[in-house]
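$ ./design --mode recover --in tokens.txt
reading tokens...
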């Protein structure tokens, strides 16, 4: 590994980087979303656009059981280790078939930005210095950041205590997509002179009392649902398909079904649970909310497992105030991300970043092995089209079990592609793993 060393960055040297005059998030738009669906490991399945769970708390205080069982630390990597970032791009091109990916400077999960921000100022990670690893690949001028975790999932035994986060969400939210094990959103914005695509998990959304939540997409406009539905219509159908309802991709194990509704960003929320005698300070969660521009927060407090009635806080103004007050850190963050892109681009286009907490430095090594994405997705940077219009997929066969589902949203019909398989509920990582 030493012979593959590219560069090193020490934390004190960050102050010497070129930084923008301002580092504020602007031009925020929702692009796409999807839910992971419980399915056999051989056929990882997502529903696009999916939906977060609906916030619907019970009346009064409630006693909950502690979290136990299977939980995800990094669900995208756990369910689709071949290409954890592939679902992001598939959902993006289902929702926006002609999206210009070459206009994007950085594609990343929220988790990576949070880790880099903690390197700049450990305050934003609770003063915890922890090693981390990020894989980076630069295609044209777009840097793709892929998180790496030692474990992507784990099991909480009956004699262990990890809090009540999963149990709380099960009781206080209502699942909107059958078999869902987590909702992921894909947004875009400008920050520090660069244009980003950021993926993150969302705990839920707040409905509008007495009204139907409208479908929305980027720019807060109603999406072209007919165009969205036509994506699957354009795919090649095989009369030999013996498994109706499943879409098989020639270059991937990933299965896509179209189901759900697009929930606008202002309705989304983050849930945190905490014991009542240790209140959660806003500064302990604000960086996470800022990266994903999540405007609502639930801080749920319990005493020996009995939860008081929680409230939904609109914290958008507080997030903006935090951004204004922490420009020094955020300008350094913007400079660091730009420097990472430059180093990797000038060193062959592929690298692995490792932060050593003891040495307090970020080390770059050349990255070998296969590319992060299926080969045909790279044609999108050249404006190329794949065999299948819109999705950018090479499809072996598509089961034609498609039924019309009345959406009652914008007066249009949303098509649902059914997927066979066991539907088994699975828990999520407590207090937000990304």
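writing sequence...
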């Amino acid at each position: 590994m030493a012979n593959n060393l590219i560069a090193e960055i020490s934390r004190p040297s960050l102050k010497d980087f070129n930084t923008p005059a301002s580092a504020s998030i602007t031009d925020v738009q929702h692009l796409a979303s999807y839910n992971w669906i419980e399915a056999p490991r051989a056929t990882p399945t997502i529903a696009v656009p999916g939906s977060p769970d609906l916030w619907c708390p019970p009346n009064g205080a409630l006693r909950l059981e502690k979290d136990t069982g299977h939980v995800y630390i990094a669900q995208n990597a756990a369910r689709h280790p071949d290409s954890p970032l592939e679902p992001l791009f598939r959902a993006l091109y289902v929702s926006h078939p002609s999206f210009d990916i070459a206009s994007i400077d950085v594609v990343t999960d929220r988790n990576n930005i949070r880790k880099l921000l903690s390197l700049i100022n450990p305050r934003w990670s609770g003063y915890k210095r922890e090693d981390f690893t990020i894989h980076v690949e630069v295609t044209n001028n777009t840097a793709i950041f892929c998180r790496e975790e030692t474990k992507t999932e784990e099991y909480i035994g009956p004699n262990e205590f990890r809090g009540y986060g999963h149990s709380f969400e099960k009781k206080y939210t209502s699942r909107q997509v059958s078999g869902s094990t987590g909702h992921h959103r894909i947004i875009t914005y400008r920050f520090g002179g660069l244009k980003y695509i950021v993926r993150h998990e969302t705990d839920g959304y707040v409905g509008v009392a007495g009204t139907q939540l409208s479908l929305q997409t980027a720019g807060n406009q109603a999406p072209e649902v007919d165009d969205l539905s036509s994506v699957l219509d354009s795919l090649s159908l095989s009369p030999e398909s013996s498994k109706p309802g499943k879409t098989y991709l020639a270059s991937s194990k990933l299965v896509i079904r179209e189901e759900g509704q697009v929930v606008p960003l202002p309705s989304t929320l983050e849930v945190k649970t905490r014991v009542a005698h240790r209140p959660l300070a806003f500064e302990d969660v604000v960086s996470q909310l800022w990266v994903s521009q999540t405007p609502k927060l639930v801080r749920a407090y319990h005493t020996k497992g009995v939860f008081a009635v929680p409230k939904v806080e609109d914290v958008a103004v507080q997030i903006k105030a935090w951004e204004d007050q922490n420009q020094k850190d955020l300008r350094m963050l913007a400079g660091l991300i730009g420097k990472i892109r430059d180093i990797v681009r000038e060193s062959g286009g592929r690298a692995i970043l490792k932060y050593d907490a003891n040495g307090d430095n970020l080390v770059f090594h050349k990255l070998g092995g296969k590319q992060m994405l299926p080969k045909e997705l790279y044609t999108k940077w050249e404006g190329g089209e794949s065999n299948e219009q819109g999705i950018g997929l090479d499809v072996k066969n598509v089961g034609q079990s498609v039924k019309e589902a009345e959406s009652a949203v914008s007066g249009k019909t949303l098509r649902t592609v059914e997927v066979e398989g066991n539907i088994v509920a699975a828990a999520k990582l407590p207090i937000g793993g990304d």
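exit 0
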